[in-house]
Amino acid sequence: MLKALVVAGVVAQCSGFSLAPRAGVARTHQRSALTLRMKGGASPERREALGAVLGAGAAIAGAMSKPETASAGAAYTLPPLPFGYGELEPHIDEMTMKIHHDKHHQAYVNNVNKALEGKEIPSLVDLQKGAMSSDVIRNNGGGHYNHAFFWTTLTPAAKSGAPSAALANAIDSSFGGMDKMMDEFSGAAAKRFGSGWAWLGVAPDGKLVIDSTPNQDNPLMDGAGTKQMIPILGLDVWEHAYYLKYQNKRPEYIEAFFNVVNWGQVSKYYEEYASKGMPVPIQG
User: Fold this and answer.
1) Are 280 and 274 in contact (CB under 8 A)?
2) Cα dihedral: 80, 146, 46, 48 (round 10)
3) pLDDT at 137 over 70
4) pTM, two decimal places
């Protein structure tokens, strides 16, 4: 199905961010809540997450739609957000979501389609492999994949839940616990100079690893220079992702991000794809 593509301007980036740590009160409260959900507690979200795991593949597949690759030859399209623009408030503000999705992401879609006009269009995942050979594909094809992936791993805070038993065990084995994983991930995101992404993924040996990439690069690109991994979680640290609300306080944005991670979806990506050596087939 052909869809009209609306060319939209890209908001100018502001410069500079602070690596100063936040006060510990909000951080401790947020992490304690996540730890409680992981341990079971009385949280309805935790009970639902464990029920989905115990219900195995059929229950998981019924709880969330399975992403599909773009058909070869079809132009890429902007996927709708799986939540309302304002549903991530107060952690990510409504105006940022509108601009980020409708303007920035749309621009990446427009530009990669223009670059591939008259050529056969590979699936969005397949496009990543050789993206480094072309700056326009690297920047815009990477930008399209990264954002389409990112939206699926976000959800309103009330639905964030906790990692599945399988993913929680992998986190414990690879990092020594959830807090240590979050610390390493936050460090990678905060220390990424300029614009880029932080990633959590599965390495070839099955262990979870964390790294960051510049600009719109991602670990699926051959020659990206990052640790080998299949991503299951990513965080956009371009200033357009947070500047309206957080200005130069990137660490505050990173901390807020963990409140709106869709751990059910991240767990699915781990169990059904990455742990089996398969990239997540993101729709786009």
Assistant:
1) yes
2) 40
3) yes
4) 0.79
